Amino acid sequence: MMMKRLLPLLMGLLLAGCAASESATPMKAQNAKANPARSLGMENLCKERAAERYNTAAQKIDVTGFERFQGSYELRGYTARNEGFVCSFDANGDFLHLSMR
Fold first, then answer.
1. Cα separation values, 51 from 1, 19, 29, 91, Å
2. C-alpha to C-alpha distance for 53 and 26, rounded to whole angstroms
3. What is the chain's pLDDT, residue by residue, as a tens digit (101 residues)?
4. Rounded distance, CA 33 to CA 68, Å?
5. Which end of the chain offers a freer environment for a tag, N or C, measured as fewer CB atoms within 10 Å?
6. Phi and psi dihedrals of 97, rounded to 5?
7. What share of the chain is helix, strand, coil (3-state, %, to 5)?
């Protein structure tokens, strides 16, 4: 008898708990806050690796974007022939890989 009274109350609490969900905002890249010496080192290493990959001089490589994610950094750039690439670094600033875009 007591279960018949508690069952609608429990069901109401369950439904109320499910309905009160927070709206999740999509994750976006955070503003890069790496120290200048570290980011300059990452940029130079990215230019060197891209120059080697695209068989050109590092001076002809243009790095245009720097983004920080939760556990990594990404630098985007272009060669003089307008070939796009992305250099990825881990949270410590160590080079991970170069992707052609």
1. 79, 54, 26, 23
2. 34
3. 566 676 676 677 666 655 555 555 555 555 545 688 889 999 999 999 999 999 999 999 999 999 999 889 999 999 999 999 999 999 999 999 999 88
4. 8
5. N
6. -165, 165
7. 40, 30, 35
Q: Provide the residue type at 89 as one letter.
A: F
The token duo for 31 is: 């503003």
CATH topology of domain 30-100: Nuclear Transport Factor 2; Chain: A, (3.10.450)
Q: What pLDDT is attached to residue 32?
A: 43
Strand partners, 75: 66, 87
Each domain of the chain, given as residue ranges in start order, spans 30-100
Q: Of 75, 36, 81, 73, which Cα lies nearest the Cα of 57?
A: 81
Sheet with strand 72-78: strands edge to edge = 62-68, 72-78, 84-90, 95-100
Size (the chain), residues: 101
